[in-house]
Write a structure and sequence with these properties.
seven-stranded parallel β-sheet, alpha/beta, six-stranded parallel β-sheet
Length: 382
């Protein structure tokens, strides 16, 4: 709801389409045309770097490009703080769930900004936004990025899911909640599809070094490929709590000559284009935007046959799939992709077309804005 203040009157304006309002006093007509307008608070409170944190930034960028008035709230040393201009960002450091200081900061900002929607990324952000004294509960919509959603979702009027598998998970727990699916998206960089390698194939994987990402499975698969006499090197891009354990595992498996760490990479396009094959060995992957980024970069993909990657790769039509948590299956899938480059590259070409049409920033912006308009009109209090 918006109010237009004119001396002696106040006009309430509601709705997304343009409207005309006329005021007649002393034979003077005032005609106003109101354009579509929306204000959104975009909240991601985590300090770590990862896919969810990156997507909170992508949401801000997409909404801004669509003309939505957006302010993002996040940790003072988080992804949003490092990439957004000060005028569009407010620091909020939540040390615990329902942090009282973070709550009062959100309350003050919400009263000043008067958002139409409070968009939260992560359970901590949602828990704070739903606190009753803040006045934001009726406008809160959570973007559900994974399967670790909590019972507090039942207090929302709507939620956005990043994949069909996440949608199904939330629907099973909250069957009456209005749910929308907006597949993750990003500024994809199109590159020519890579030809078959002339030398030793370069494999790569990228993501936060967390147990869910299955990098340990990938290291063991590299040891199996070495034992089979299949040449390949692996570049691991990312950082996280699994780094010490993975470093020891690489030594224990005898693949120090084949596996190297590339560190955290903010802009993955050049890294991906330097690979001959991208491998996603995840145990859990609600979406997996890096798969779409690899497809757009013209790099063939091998991934585990789970949730998000399976959706993105169209159940194996656009890349090689294998069982999760299985080094032998992963090694076999990699060996097959390396042995049959004609089929591997044919899938890569089709995958590139699909990724650019479905997961680009432009495609995501359209889906997101349409979804936000539906939610604001049908499911939130004015």
């Amino acid at each position: 709801m918006r109010f237009l203040d004119i001396p002696g009157m106040k006009i309430a304006v509601k709705g997304c389409n343009s409207a005309e309002y006329m005021y007649d006093t002393a034979y003077i007509f005032v005609c106003l045309r109101i354009s579509p307008f929306m204000r959104v608070l975009n909240i991601m409170l985590a300090q770590v770097r990862g896919g969810v944190e990156t997507m909170s930034l992508r949401y801000h960028e997409a909404m801004t490009a669509a003309g939505i008035d957006v302010i993002s709230l996040g940790h003072s040393d988080g992804v949003l703080a490092h990439h957004l201009p000060p005028a569009r960002f407010r620091p909020v450091n939540a040390l615990v769930n329902h942090d009282p200081f973070a709550a009062w900061t959100l309350r003050r900002i919400a009263r000043e900004f008067r958002p139409d929607i409070v968009l939260t990324h992560g359970n901590r952000a949602t828990g704070i936004a739903l606190l009753p004294f803040l006045g934001t509960a009726e406008k809160t919509v959570q973007v559900v990025h994974n399967f670790r959603h909590k019972g507090q979702l039942s207090r929302l009027h709507a939620a956005i899911c990043v994949s069909e598998s996440v949608h199904d998970s939330v629907k099973a727990a909250h069957p009456d909640m209005p749910l929308f699916t907006v597949a993750n998206f990003g500024p994809l960089n199109e590159r020519p599809v890579k030809p078959a390698p002339e030398g030793t194939p370069v494999l790569g994987t990228l993501g936060r070094l967390h147990v869910n990402k299955g990098i340990d499975v990938m290291v063991r698969a590299m040891a199996l490929l070495k034992a089979q006499g299949i040449k390949a090197v692996l570049k691991i891009a990312g950082d996280g709590p699994e780094l010490p354990r993975l470093t020891r595992l690489i030594i224990d498996e005898g693949v120090s000559d084949r596996v190297q760490f590339a560190g955290w990479i903010d802009e993955p396009a050049d890294y991906l284009h330097g690979l001959d094959l991208f491998v996603l060995p995840s145990r859990v992957e609600p979406f997996g935007l890096v798969v779409a980024e690899s497809m757009a970069a013209g790099v063939p993909v091998v991934a585990t046959d789970i949730d998000g990657p399976k959706e993105i790769l169209q159940h194996g039509a656009l890349g090689q799939l294998c069982a999760a948590e299985d080094p032998e299956a992963l090694a076999a899938a990699i060996a097959l992709a390396l042995a049959d480059w004609k089929t591997t590259l044919a899938k890569a070409r089709a995958a590139q077309v699909y990724a650019l049409s479905q997961f680009s920033l432009e495609a995501g912006q359209t889906r997101l804005v349409d979804t936000l308009q539906q939610i604001a009109q049908k499911h939130l209090s004015p």
